[in-house]
Amino acid sequence: MTWRQTVVVALSVGAWSCAGCAGAASIGIKLPKRTRFESEWRSYEKLPEFKSLAVAGDRAGVYVSGVAYDHRHTDSAVAAALRYCEERRVDRRIEAPCQTVAVNGESFLSDTGQGREEAP
Q: pLDDT tens digits, residue range 102-115?
């Protein structure tokens, strides 16, 4: 058997033996099924007070967010989150305006997914 044939056989055996290794779930590790926004929301909830979350997105699920926390006043956190969101919105070329969706852990999201455009 030549060197090349040995490599082909080794690769073939390796591919066959790992046919079920497509993802972590295939080896018995249960991964949480969360959306990116759900992950961001959980991180936001853990942040210190005087915080705000702003989001801009489209119906296709493309969105950007801006988060501000540990500010001295709620108003400055809201303004900063909207500013951070706006910077990302322009970069991603999202037409929808940034909206404040949470302040100090209180969500303004309704069943339609709409937040507030103005600071509370």
A: 999 899 886 544 45
Query: Cα separation of 72 and 35, whole Å?
Result: 31
SS3 27: helix
| End-to-end CA, the chain | 75
H/E run at residue 108 = none
The Cα–Cα gap between 71 and 10 comes to 59
Between CA 41 and CA 116 the distance in angstroms is: 17
How far does Cα 22 stand from its chain's mean position?
23
Contact (CB, 8 A) for 64 and 89 = yes
- Cβ of 63: how many Cβ atoms within 10 Å? 20
What's the pTM value of the predicted model, to 2 decimals? 0.65
